Amino acid sequence: MAERPYIVGNWKMNGTRAMLSEARAIDRAAQRYMKAEVAVAPPYTLIHAVHREAEQIGIGAQDCHDGDDGAHTGDISAAMVADAGAKFVILGHSERRADHKETNTQINAKIEAALEAGLRIILCCGETLATREKGDAVEFVLKQLKASLPKIEDAAERLTVAYEPVWAIGTGKTATPKDIEEMHRAIRGLLDETYGAEQSAEVRILYGGSVKPDNAREILSVPEVGGALVGGASLSAESFLGIVVAASETEDA
Question: Which pLDDT value is given to residue 27?
Fold first, then answer.
């Protein structure tokens, strides 16, 4: 598996400057747990401020537009994200797909724009409960990924995939270790097919969906799980660092 476990906090639409103290606490503590790579994606309004505070953790954005500039009121380009201090961007999150009706084609265009701007990518994928109950989860997720994965040269070097079953996001539910392993192995197979085994090995596959300190160790111990994309538990330094510690201890095991 490539590199250290990657633990990423997605703050979603949460955070004002009052939360900079949480960012500082996460950053300072992450310096003590170097066996895990730690990052946060605050809202656009805090990217620059958190970037100035951070000495250790990576800083990213939660989305970007696929255009370089133009008449797109309220949108932020990949170049603007990078200029604010972000090093990566989360794309294809299920909340963007559902709330903003984003298609795989649009997500692929955003990925190419972000790569052109020098950003790393966290590409999200995941199925609804109805899809899983029909037994179509793996087929659905692989179809999502096939249509979204960047095909440009060396894309795998800056790519992370995050599997987030939609029914587990913010619900307190998590997929079973067996289900996680099945999906992550299927995703690895697609990455091997798309980029070749050598380049595919550089891509970490994260699990997301109600990851918390009390379940992180079990999840991170599942084969092919290269880290976690964390939502609500990342808003508190105490809870987020519990997951970071679990990742570090998993590396020691």
Answer: 97
CA distance 20 to 189: 40
Stated pTM of the model: 0.96
Annotated catalytic residue, options 65, 164, 184, 224: 164
Q: Where are the beta strands (DSSP E) in the chain?
A: 6-10, 37-41, 58-61, 88-91, 120-125, 159-163, 204-208, 227-230
Three-class secondary structure of residue 58 per DSSP: strand
Residue 214 has pLDDT above 60, yes or no: yes
Dist. CA 103–CA 148, nearest whole Å:
9
What mean pLDDT, rounded, does the chain reach?
95
- The percentage of the chain sitting over the pLDDT mark of 70, rounded to a whole number, equals 98
Q: Return the SS3 of 240.
A: helix
Instruction: Determine whether 100 is an active site residue.
Output: no
* CA–CA distance, 32 with 132 (Å, rounded to integer): 39
Geometric angle at alpha carbon 121, from 115 and 127, rounded to 5°:
130
Distance CA 163, CA 5 (A): 15
User: Catalytic residue among 22, 37, 51, 93, which?
Assistant: 93
**Would you call 218 a catalytic residue per the annotation?**
no
Question: Which DSSP letter does residue 19 get?
Answer: G
What are 118-162's pLDDT values in tens digits? 999 999 999 999 999 999 999 999 999 999 999 888 899 999 999
Q: Cα separations (Å) of 43 from 10, 86, 178?
A: 9, 11, 33
